[in-house]
């Protein structure tokens, strides 16, 4: 095990795995919690915000951190699994300090914070010691000049910044999965959360919205202008967009649907017609659909699409024309595992599973769960009375609707006891 370095930069900690003494990963670093007393005094680092199983965020006191190196953090293993709740006297380094406008007093340079360093003191405490500042870009430069200053030489970190941007926080979150970014966004103060959300591009914001609780989704969407809100809804998967639109007032629903592209809006309208928690309401109308003349090579090329979830990429639906839902008659499904064993030039129609039963759109959530479990599936076709394909319901759609609304707040089951309390 390497020796803990004397100085560690906060942005480089984000995403690092946290291990217990046995070498088992117990979570990932998401932020640092500090106590800021005044402009000149170095803030004490109280602990880390860690994400554990179930995307739950807990507090890990620095007294429980035994080692930090370039790739991981080690703890005593005695962690309190209670959900982290920020106190009024605490500040989040990543969530609240990045992008603040500050001034380096010795030079008069003004810029925004893009990282903060912490160091070990003689008393074995961790304190914030240095601030990395970037000046605004000038002329043709893409990035402004950077400076690293002592904490005591920087002013502006303790006051509220109404014009605080989000550039560096977004950069810190860029490598995270949408679900992880959504967790950090969820725990930010309301105004900061809105600023970060509005600074995301449409596609990224759509991905993150799909992972947020409904109340956060509605709050963020209501802060967008109508045109941009419609653009973001278009980037979301139709089933998630339909769920979100359904939570809005009727007049807002219709306004946004009118602003969306007609084809995208039609998918959302169609899904909103189904009763909540039925196969029709949960399904996505965008599975991989091919005609009977498609080859195995065609099918494999389609499922390589990185935007497909693993569940949707698990099978191909072969239908007669038209190939847009509602399609012509569903001829059968082709499992990717089977197609991988077939010659690329052969027809997908020759490898169909024609015996697989389909689900009607009015199938209940229990019916869907029983169907997927009975046939060991991660996706299943949803068809109308004429066997026209309407869409596909996947196991991730099912879990989203079966889990309780507060499932992220539940403590994960652990085999070992939890010892420490937050101090």
Summed up, what is this model?
This protein is α+β, with helices and mostly antiparallel strands.
Task: Characterise this structure.
With about 425 residues, the chain is of the alpha+beta class. Among the domains are: about 5-85, SH3 type barrels (Roll), CATH 2.30.30; about 200-275, MgtE N-terminal domain-like (MgtE N-terminal fold); about 290-400, CBS-domain. The protein has helices at about 10-15, 95, 165-175, 180-185, 190-200, 200-210, 215-225, 225-235, 240-245, 250-260, 260-270, 280, 295-305, 335-340, 365-375, 395-400; strands at about 5-10, 15-20, 25-35, 45-50, 55-60, 65-70, 75, 90, 100-105, 110-120, 125-135, 145-150, 155, 290, 315-320, 330-335, 380-385, 390-395. Helix 8 crosses helix 10 and helix 9 (about 240-245) packs across helix 11. The longest helix has 11 residues, at about 260-270. The radius of gyration is 25 Å and the shape is elongated.
């Amino acid at each position: 095990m390497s020796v803990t370095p004397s100085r560690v930069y906060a942005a480089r900690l984000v995403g690092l795995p946290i291990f217990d003494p046995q070498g088992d990963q117990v979570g990932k670093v998401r932020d640092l919690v500090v106590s800021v007393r005044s402009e000149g005094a170095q803030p004490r680092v109280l602990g880390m915000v860690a994400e554990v199983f179930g995307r739950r965020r807990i507090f890990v006191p620095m007294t429980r951190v035994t080692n930090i190196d370039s790739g991981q953090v080690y703890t005593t293993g005695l962690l309190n699994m209670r959900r982290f709740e920020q106190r009024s006297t605490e500040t989040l380094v990543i969530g609240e300090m990045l992008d603040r406008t500050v001034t380096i007093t010795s030079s008069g340079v003004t810029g925004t914070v893009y990282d903060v360093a912490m160091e070990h003191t003689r008393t074995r405490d961790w304190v914030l010691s240095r601030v990395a500042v970037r000046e605004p870009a000038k002329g043709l430069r893409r990035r402004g000049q950077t400076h690293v200053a002592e904490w005591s030489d920087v002013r502006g970190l303790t006051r509220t910044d109404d014009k605080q941007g989000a550039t560096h926080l977004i950069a810190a979150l860029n490598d995270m999965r949408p679900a992880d970014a959504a967790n950090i966004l969820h725990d930010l103060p309301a105004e900061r959360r809105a600023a970060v959300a509005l600074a995301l591009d449409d596609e990224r914001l759509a991905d993150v919205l799909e992972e947020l609780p409904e109340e956060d989704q509605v709050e963020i969407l209501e802060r967008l202008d109508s045109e941009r809100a419609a653009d973001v809804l278009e980037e979301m998967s139709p089933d998630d967009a339909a769920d979100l639109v359904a939570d809005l007032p009727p007049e807002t629903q219709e306004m946004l649907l009118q602003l969306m592209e007609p084809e995208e809006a039609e998918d959302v309208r169609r899904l909103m017609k189904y009763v909540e928690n039925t196969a029709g309401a949960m399904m996505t109308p965008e599975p991989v659909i091919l005609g009977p003349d498609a080859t195995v090579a065609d099918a494999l090329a389609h499922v390589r699409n990185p935007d497909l979830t693993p569940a949707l990429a698990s099978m191909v639906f072969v239908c007669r024309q038209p190939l847009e839902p509602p399609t012509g008659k569903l001829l059968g499904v082709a499992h990717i595992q089977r197609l991988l064993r077939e010659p690329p030039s052969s027809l997908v129609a020759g490898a169909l599973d024609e015996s697989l039963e389909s689900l009607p759109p009015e199938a209940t959530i229990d019916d869907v769960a029983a169907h997927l479990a009975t046939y060991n599936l991660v996706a299943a076709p949803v068809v109308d009375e004429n066997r026209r394909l309407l869409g596909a319901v996947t196991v991730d759609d099912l879990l989203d609707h079966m889990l309780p609304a507060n499932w992220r707040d539940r403590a994960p089951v652990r085999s070992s006891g939890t010892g420490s309390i937050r101090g």
